[in-house]
Amino acid sequence: TAQVYTILSFLMGEVLPVAEDSETYYISTKLRKRPLDNFGNEELVSWTCTKKFLLLSSPWHRKGGVARSNIYYHGVRNFIKMKMFNLFNPDAVAEANSIPKSKKDRTKEQQERYEALSDTKKAFNKSLGEQGPGGFDAEKYEAFRKFRAEYLGYVRELFNAFRAIITR
After folding, report:
1. Assign residue 43 a region: left if phi > 0, alpha if psi is -120 to 50, beta otherwise?
2. How high is the pLDDT of residue 153?
3. Cβ atoms of residues 54 and 70 within 8 Å
4. Which of 87, 90, 136, 151 has a beta carbon 3.0–4.6 Å from 140's, enabling a disulfide?
């Protein structure tokens, strides 16, 4: 949900100072627009503008702040870990899907197996974290790059869907 709110915040109000107190700010209800020319024409921010100027997808990415952290760290990290586990442990995923989701619906044996699968997933995620993208073999590195691009495509798609809804 933090990623969804972050994407919506790119389109909604700008931060403006309160007239009486220049140290206090509020978020306006106006849509965030960017100037197109010197004649006062404006347009709702596009994904390219957002990516370049708000998320700072550049070598100076440390200036991206909380928005960049929500999208590129918290969102993409969990997405890639889930996809990598599904790709490299298909048997464990199939078995986990056969176990009831609710703990109260599981038998004792199913619960024990569920906990063992959970430990397997934790160990896999820990090993991914310790290796990092630089320590992956060629197959894992290609999967990492593919899933990262896939996630960012989904973020762009969601941004454009919100933009289309707002401009109707």
Report:
1. beta
2. 94
3. no
4. 136
Q: What ranges in the chain are assigned the alpha helix state H? A: 2-11, 47-49, 65-68, 76-88, 90-98, 108-131, 138-167
- Rounded to 5°, the CA angle 32-38-40 comes to 45
Which residue reads 């999208």 in tokens?
A: 71
Length of the chain: 168
Buried b or exposed e, range 13-35, using 16+ CB within 10 angstroms: eeeeeeeeeeeeeeeeeeebeee
Question: Domain extents for the chain?
Answer: 2-167
- Rounded distance, CA 168 to CA 11, Å? 14
